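--- STAGE predict ---
source: upstream dedup step, 1 unique chain passed
mode: sequence only
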Amino acid sequence: QVQLVESGGGLVQAGGPLRLSCAVSGIIFRFYSMAWYRQAPGKQRELVARISIGGTTNYADSVKGRCTISRDNAKRTVYLQMNSLKPEDTSEYYCKAADLYWGNGTLVTVSP
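--- STAGE serialize ---
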């Protein structure tokens, strides 16, 4: 059974940092690309960042320069370091594995 468990969300002031983690089990982690998505209330889910099995990364324009996605294959965990957070970053953040499996999300709220 594939499980993705996100953590690290919370309330943060604008300008502050936050690091999200996603622990993965049930798949051979190092064989798959990983991604972070987010969905704000009333909006469509959107890609935030993606990392390939080789470590190639890409980012949404809205977070480029402020976010870094990384992975630790030994820990089967993917991270999203977010800096200079803005109120418009407030969303539920979801981890996705292998372009197929989703976690349940972790809420990030950025106060002005």
